[in-house]
C-alpha cells in the first residue's frame, strides 16, 4: 500500500522517534514504505515521513544508481551512527517531505553504523559515499532534523518563502 508523505510544516517531522520492538509488525510497514519510495522515485524514506514515530527507514538507490556500484535496497531498524569520518563533502540533497527544494549539504563521507535487519538481527557495517549520505539524511529524520536545518542562515532565508508555501499546502 502506498503511504501518504508528510510535508514540511507538520509537527510530526520535528518529533523524535522510538525504537521498534521485535513484536512490532515492521515487515508490512517496511514493504509499504519501500513501495511508497519507489512510486515517489526517492532514495530514502523514514518513519516520520509517513506519520510513524518509530526508528525505521528504507533506502533504495535504484533511482540514483550509477554504473559503478550495485543498487542498495535495504530496511534499517533502530539505526545508530557509531562513528563519523573527518572527510566531508557537499552533495545536492532533496527530500520527499520538502518537494522542489534541493540544496548543497555537507556531511561526512564515511560512517560506521549499527542497526537491526529484517530478521531483527544486529548488524554493523561501514558505509561510504551516497549510501552513507542517504543513511545520515534518514537518520536525521528520526531525530526530528531536516536537511534544511544544516543550511547556512543565508540559504535558509533564500528558501524561506518556498518553505512557507509547502507548509501552507500541508495543512
From TrEMBL:
<feature type="binding site">
    <location>
        <position position="141"/>
    </location>
    <ligand>
        <name>Fe cation</name>
    </ligand>
</feature>
<keyword id="KW-0648">Protein biosynthesis</keyword>
<feature type="binding site">
    <location>
        <position position="95"/>
    </location>
    <ligand>
        <name>Fe cation</name>
    </ligand>
</feature>
<dbReference type="GO" id="GO:0042586">
    <property type="term" value="F:peptide deformylase activity"/>
</dbReference>
<comment type="function">
    <text>Removes the formyl group from the N-terminal Met of newly synthesized proteins. Requires at least a dipeptide for an efficient rate of reaction. N-terminal L-methionine is a prerequisite for activity but the enzyme has broad specificity at other positions.</text>
</comment>
<feature type="binding site">
    <location>
        <position position="137"/>
    </location>
    <ligand>
        <name>Fe cation</name>
    </ligand>
</feature>
<feature type="active site">
    <location>
        <position position="138"/>
    </location>
</feature>
<protein>
    <recommendedName>
        <fullName>Peptide deformylase</fullName>
        <ecNumber>3.5.1.88</ecNumber>
    </recommendedName>
</protein>
<dbReference type="InterPro" id="IPR023635">
    <property type="entry name" value="Peptide_deformylase"/>
</dbReference>
<dbReference type="Pfam" id="PF01327">
    <property type="entry name" value="Pep_deformylase"/>
</dbReference>
<keyword id="KW-0408">Iron</keyword>
<keyword id="KW-0378">Hydrolase</keyword>
<dbReference type="GO" id="GO:0046872">
    <property type="term" value="F:metal ion binding"/>
</dbReference>
<keyword id="KW-0479">Metal-binding</keyword>
<dbReference type="InterPro" id="IPR036821">
    <property type="entry name" value="Peptide_deformylase_sf"/>
</dbReference>
<dbReference type="GO" id="GO:0006412">
    <property type="term" value="P:translation"/>
</dbReference>
<comment type="similarity">
    <text>Belongs to the polypeptide deformylase family.</text>
</comment>
